Amino acid sequence: MPKALGRDSACSIARSLEVLGDSWTLLIVREAIVAGATRFHEFRDALGVAPNILAKRLASLVDDGLMVRRTYQEPGERAREEYVLTDAGRSLSLVVAALGEWGRTHRPRPDGTSPRFLVETSDDPVRLAFVDSRGGQVPPERLVARRVPDRERATEAIS
Amino acid sequence: MPKALGRDSACSIARSLEVLGDSWTLLIVREAIVAGATRFHEFRDALGVAPNILAKRLASLVDDGLMVRRTYQEPGERAREEYVLTDAGRSLSLVVAALGEWGRTHRPRPDGTSPRFLVETSDDPVRLAFVDSRGGQVPPERLVARRVPDRERATEAIS
DNA sequence: CTGCTAGGTTGCACGAAGCAACTCAGACTC
DNA sequence: GAGTCTGAGTTGCTTCGTGCAACCTAGCAG
């Protein structure tokens, strides 16, 4: 976690990375989104992460509002803890999908696996794409990037 | 950088994070994509990163094939180094855009700025979206995630 | 009352991050 | 031709987070 840009940079990417900068965090989120993991041991077994690190990361995710910690109890079992994604956490699926597509394309492995996102009702696989205001897809080569104040979007919508 | 999943995990996201896991790396890429930065001092001044860290990150980016280091010389100047994104580096725009949208939505700031991607010819702003095989947009709530072997995509295309 | 399992906590060792200071080489100034 | 400015780093030191292993605790099973 870089200290200089740190906690409340004006840049939205820096603010995202403040929460997600640690790579375990994104892997935990990936596991929750893709595999539906909710329990401590599911994350630990799937990722091979040390328990102290996992505890700290899960606590950060709860602090940052990406997950909620809930106590639940199955019949005949004792009370357990589970970690469930919030809306903010679930909406990281765009980031997870982008990372997955990039890794699959630019770091290919013959035996690789990737999270794929499918339409719930039809199992139709989906991709990530840039779309313009009329809903048409635009290839990345035809784009330019520019840093813009966030408020301009509201102004745009009004004017 | 997590050691356990580390260098050549079967998961494409873990492989992406192996390269991008350090948050400085993504901020450097962001700066190159959004601001078009190429020179050492441009990155240092924009990000406030310590020069030893920056030198190490840039070297990693070159090693990993996301950037190339080139010597150039402007007339009347001595030879300088510049760092230019490769295709692999430029295609991180999807990841950068996803992080920017997430930060803008879930970590809003009144004085925030975000990188926006615009269509080169028309200045029309674009968004990131999931699209199905027919090019229609699908909201994230209607998706399920599943881990799938990468090869199945090739098989899909054939069958 | 012993073991088993889920969900952690504690205690070190080591490597990376952060900061400041220094280097080096070419061009420009006087 | 001595000083100086500027870009592009390197070196040294300190501190903080990561990784590993070991330990702890609550409940249920036998």
Describe the overall structure.
Two copies of one chain form a homodimer. Chain A is of the alpha+beta class and 159 residues long. Helix content of chain A is 43%, strand content 22%. Chain A has helices spanning 12-20, 23-35, 40-47, 51-63, 87-90, 93-106, 151-158; strands at 67-72, 80-85, 113-119, 125-131, 137-138, 143-149. In chain A, a hairpin with a 5-residue loop joins strand 4 (125-131) and strand 5 (137-138). The longest helix of chain A has 14 residues, at 93-106. In chain A, 40% of the residues are buried. Chains A and B meet through helix 1, helix 2, helix 6, strand 3 and strand 4 of A and helix 1, helix 2, helix 6, strand 3 and strand 4 of B. Strand 3 (113-119) of chain A pairs antiparallel with strand 6 (143-149) of chain B. The structure holds a DNA duplex (30 and 30 nucleotides).
